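Hi everyone,

Forwarding the result from last night's run.
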Amino acid sequence: MARHLVYRRYGGSLQVSIPSFEVLTEAIHIPETQWLATACPVEGLNCDRRFLEFLDTDRNGRIRVMEVRAAVETTAKWLKSHQGVDDASDVLVLDALSDEGQKLRAAADALLDTLKVEDRSRISLAQVRASEQSFRGSGQNGDGIVAPAFLAEPLRSLAHAIMASFAEVKNRAGQPGLDLPTLQRFREERGVLLGHLSGKEALLAWGPQSVERARRVQEIRPLLDTYFLQCRLIAAQPEAVTSLKLEATRVQGALGDLQSLARVVSELPVAPPEPGGVLRWSRLYRGPAFERLENFRKDVALPITNDLATLTDAAWRDMTARADAILAWQARLDASPLRAQVDALAAVPESQLDAIEAACRADLALKERLDTVVELERLLLYQRWLLVFANNFISMPDLYQTKRRALMEKGTLILGGRRYRLSVLVKDRAAHSALTSQGTTCTLYVQVLSKEGGEQFEVAVPATRGRSTELTVGKRGIFYDVDHREFDAVVTQVVRQPVSLWESMTMPFERIGKFISQKIESLAASGEQSLDASLEKSFVQGSEVANAAVTAPATAPTAPKAPPAPPPSVTGPGGFLAAGGIAIAAVGSSLAFIVSQVRSLTLFNVLSAVLLAIAVVMLPSGLLGWLKLRKRNLALLLEGSGWALNDGLKLTRDLAAIITRRPRLPKHATVDRVDVLRSALVSVHEDDEEEPRQWGVWTVVILVAVFALLWQVREPLSREACKRGWLPRSACESLLPQTPRR
């Protein structure tokens, strides 16, 4: 009977509600387009690793829709009561098994007998794993692969030797061992190799050095094959012997060039060809191959043919045929996987091979029983985690809860007085940041380090409240994972975006202030550089003038009249002070103009103008920031970690308040507004000698600044004083405009 599914809205995302396993059996049949996720990586999920291995049936490191459906259907087939799944319990009540799950009950009863447990109505995940571990500890895995450690000593050495000859196979416990196919292949390869070795004496007619001599024959073969072919040529056509000799002109042309001469000599036969097909060793040409042929004669040809003077064509053909047969036999021997054990193969008794085979068959006889134990563990893990996983895959309600953790969350970051609750594992920061930078969410990348220097990983953390300008690379904090373990944390990258509407509205002013401060700093730096350059130039010019005065002769009647000196340039400290005076005058005149313009305005007009200017800057920035804040999406955070999502996870105002928080003070705490530092400073001043303050210097500086300001605005102030009658008329005649007489 189909149930009525309920869809709920979480932060703007419509998700199916899955409160129980009965609802889950219906929810898995909704279209994949209505699943919140269609695939996710195995790594980075906070649940039992073995459960994820069971769920990932194709072992590709990713969990997909069809694998989740198969797990739900398997659980529904094995259980007739779903109370354990609803409670996410790791204890299986055996009466909850359906008729198809009775084989699991038989395995559970056998395990309970082994563990000698009194309560026979239920079995826990810990009990199943303990019994399975005891099986594996005794070498029983049910896969027919026996590790040498569980064999008797005479068989253990043989097992190691056989394993060294073939590809490694491992049992369920991860131990390398022997199985029946490997043992059968050993028997076959052993029989073939022993039969191959039986013809060794007849084939290796050249003695213990037969293989080495055969290799020497193969090395020299191109030279001698060519020679005997030339012998056949001149036997059929005697005049061809002249073509095998070098022309005198070629020899004369190559005498002056060693490389050319070497090429010419290499074209000669190894010896003068004879029509009878005989190589006379005494007639070998002393060409490039002379030493090789001479060594071949002494080491190979003479022991084989017993002929000190000649080598016939027939003897050479017989020699090459035998060499080919010897090398082929040796190649087959070298290709055998049992080559390293060739000397001990004949001594291996069949009884030892039979004993190893019996051990493999005895372990394989436990396969059905141990496979049932594995399936029992699978069911217990599905009962514990399947509903939880579905509520983090088909829908994600735990992401919007404060008291529950979603499976993809790694922990909580404490940084800069705020608590960042959401974090996801990052394997490739470059790829992840390339995706999150396309969104509008401020994201921190944080390196998490164990305080002991062992475990470390990197997480991505969305910042949803506060100010992004407070978050900088290198800022340190602490990190608590979902198991409440404490780690050190350091920010490695910030994808900066406005975090709040107020920050987006005030960001232009921060940029303006930063720009002005940078310009002032650059102007100050350039001014210091100009002053240093001018001082250096003045010093150099003064030194040159002094040196010229010292070295000039007392009288110089014939010296031509010096040209008129150029007008003095405004350089050095005097020029710098003059330029500074001009700049101060310009600033003063600007202030006078501003004062004269503002004087005619009322306070209301000034405030209105200031507010209007602020509004012109803040409103567009606020509108743009509001649009960015509305588009914030947590889906990019998960997709960068390998999730495939159908719908976006909009970062609403409420969700932002859940993810990033500044905890309040304790409930019954009070705040003492008195600054403790002031009382500390009072005691410090009482104990220390008070440093004299330079009141006179500051007074002079302030008076000079006020005088400069008044001097620049003296004319507007004097006119205003004349208008109000505060000055005598004689002093005002030059200031007030003259009215024309009629």
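The chain has three domains: 7-139+368-400, 146-365, 409-531+600-664.

Cheers,
N.
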